[in-house]
Amino acid sequence: MATPAKNESPETASAPGVRPNRLWSFKPRSDREAGDAVVSNFALHWFPAKVSKPSLDWTYSYWLGTISAALFLLLVLSGLPLLFLYVPSVERAYASVKDIEWVVTFGSWIRSVHRLSAHLMVAAVFVHLVRVFLTGAYKNGSGRGQRREWNWVIGVALLLLTLFLSFTGYLLPWDQLAFWAVTVGTNIAASIPWIGAQVRELLIGGRNIDQPTLIRFYALHVIVLPGLLGALFAYHMWRVRRDGGLARVDRVATLREKAADEPVRTKTYTLLGVASGVAPTIRTASLEARDLTVNAVPDLVRRAAVAVLGTFAVISVLASLIRSPLEEPANPLVTPNPAKAPWYFLWLQEIVTDTTFTVGGFTVNGAFLGGVILPGLLVAALVAWPWLDRSPAGAAGVWFHGSRRRQNAVFLAAVLAVVVLTIVGTFLRGPSWQLFWPWQAWPDIPARI
Amino acid sequence: MSEDKGDRREFLVKLGIGAGVVGIGTQAAASLRSLLPNVSYDAPTTVKLGLPADFPDGMKFLPEQRLFVFREGKVFHAVSAVCTHLGCTVRAEALPRPETVEVAGGALRLTHGFACPCHGSRYAGDGKVVSGPAPRPLAWYHLSVSPDDGQLVVDLAQEVGRDFRLTTA
């Protein structure tokens, strides 16, 4: 432990709760100092003092949640300079993005960082959801007062917010890609029977995609949705702590239980539970045992730093290699051919293409069935799944647990369907949404008639 | 007496909470209502298209109105270019050989078919769905001749049947 500063009296230094070492220490020399490093540091105050070793494994969680959060941080950081440079007006939006791309120093790189982070965040959040499903990590284990199923629901909401954030950002350059993606997207909303037209009008602030649409999407993109996502993310993390860490920790505790000594509430988790008195009780065996736990500082911090800084590094390099596209300025008079939605919506575009059907003279628009009903059912199934999952608590935190074989197969089939449809939409659809092999040349179709 | 006091306190607490809920609810409703536009700055739905004589025989595409105007001598009709599936602008494709078909009880000479670039819906020259996800045929709009300067006028808010024809003098 560091010696107290000279101007501090010995009594103050030794008083309970007063930490003589105010600086965060990367190489703590004692458990006490390691604990202080977390408690006295604002950036780390949401970390536990100790973490179980298995929950740090790279190959358990693949740190996908951390990577998603790092990407969100990067999006906020790269969004700030763009906020100063972008003008949300239909007359000037395109020109301002063009300036960012070709005039502003490093503008093209910043825009690429923002765009690539957004694309990768959609992917990372989705893969994170897949990981949590396949490990049964939304299941409650041995701790009391756990509500992991609700954290899964929050996670689904975070995925939807991520998609909607990407979609609103898509319109801002006001180019052809943007304009027609939003035309298609908002017309899906318009296909809802009876209220569709009004919903679309509310979304785009009128009957045509114009200035009111741009300012709406802009406000949603820069403040409303990031604010919501940030708040839900904070709650998501709080719940992880509250539920006793990753689901895998419970398993370690359960396995240890047979050999365990008297269960004692631990310092770590009661810290959060003092107020409400329902802290999950994790057996001492799992937390205090030297061979199973490590101090959060430096072990957790080091790995989180690798994940976060690694994400930053990958994006920085990719952004200097890959430029962001900017198509012709938005032109309501000419629909590009083919007109494709962003890649993460192409599976939906595939579905809306194939789901129009007629029953006895009554036609159901594929836009409604494939664009509203089917995604709605998918989201509802995701939300309800933890309550439908009847596997034992021992299946929590295990990759491909034997008792969850069938539901994993169903889930993976759905994931595969989405991935395959996305690939078909991305690579195999050409003009007029016809199927082409990647090596087949597209026919020449004039842009204008 | 003391019981009375308790009742009053409870009532006031409930009143306070209720007032808070009503207050916040009203403010939220007002904020949301402000997002519903009261005035539309959209383009007018009744548009002058030019003199009938300036239209070529056959088909003319008007991108601003997203409209195809067909002329056969003195007879005009107009078909929407907005795909009924998800609102993309369909493209006209000239038929190799024009054909005359029976549409809504009358003969119609078809010179074009239509294809949507977004999801591949295809329509016949009269707007009928041939294939693809489009749920309805392309709309036909009302045409008239403006009494002041003789220009062709389309009313994009007035859909008409496929037997509609405007015969100019």
What's a quick, concise take on this entry?
The complex is a heterodimer of chains A (449) and B (169). With 449 residues, chain A is mainly alpha-helical. Chain A has helices spanning 10-14, 31-39, 58-61, 64-85, 93-102, 107-134, 148-171, 176-190, 196-204, 211-242, 247-257, 267-273, 284-288, 296-321, 346-354, 366-388, 405-427, and strands at 50-52, 293-295, 357-359, 362-364.
Number of helices of chain B: 1
CATH topology label of the largest domain in chain B: Rieske Iron-sulfur Protein
Number of helices of chain A: 17
**CATH architectural label of the domain at 50-337 in chain A:** Up-down Bundle
What is the element layout, followed by pairings?
The complex is a heterodimer of chains A (449) and B (169).
Chain A: H1 10-14, H2 31-39, E1 50-52, H3 58-61, H4 64-85, H5 93-102, H6 107-134, H7 148-171, H8 176-190, H9 196-204, H10 211-242, H11 247-257, H12 267-273, H13 284-288, E2 293-295, H14 296-321, H15 346-354, E3 357-359, E4 362-364, H16 366-388, H17 405-427
Chain B: H1 2-33, E1 46-50, E2 58-62, E3 67-72, E4 75-80, E5 91-103, E6 106-115, E7 122-123, E8 129-131, E9 140-145, E10 152-160, E11 166-167
Q: Could you describe the 3D structure shown?
A:
The complex is a heterodimer of chains A (449) and B (169). Chain A is an all-alpha fold. Chain A has a two-stranded antiparallel sheet. A two-stranded antiparallel sheet of chain A has the order 3-4. Chain A has a domain at 50-337: Cytochrome Bc1 Complex, Chain C (Up-down Bundle), CATH 1.20.810. Chain A has helices at 10-14, 31-39, 58-61, 64-85, 93-102, 107-134, 148-171, 176-190, 196-204, 211-242, 247-257, 267-273, 284-288, 296-321, 346-354, 366-388, 405-427, and strands spanning 50-52, 293-295, 357-359, 362-364. Chain B has 2 domains: 1-36; 46-167, 3-layer Sandwich (Rieske Iron-sulfur Protein). Helices cover 19% and strands 40% of the residues of chain B. Chain B has one helix at 2-33, and strands spanning 46-50, 58-62, 67-72, 75-80, 91-103, 106-115, 122-123, 129-131, 140-145, 152-160, 166-167. Chain B is elongated and about 95 Å long. At the A-B interface, helix 8 and helix 15 of A face loops of B.
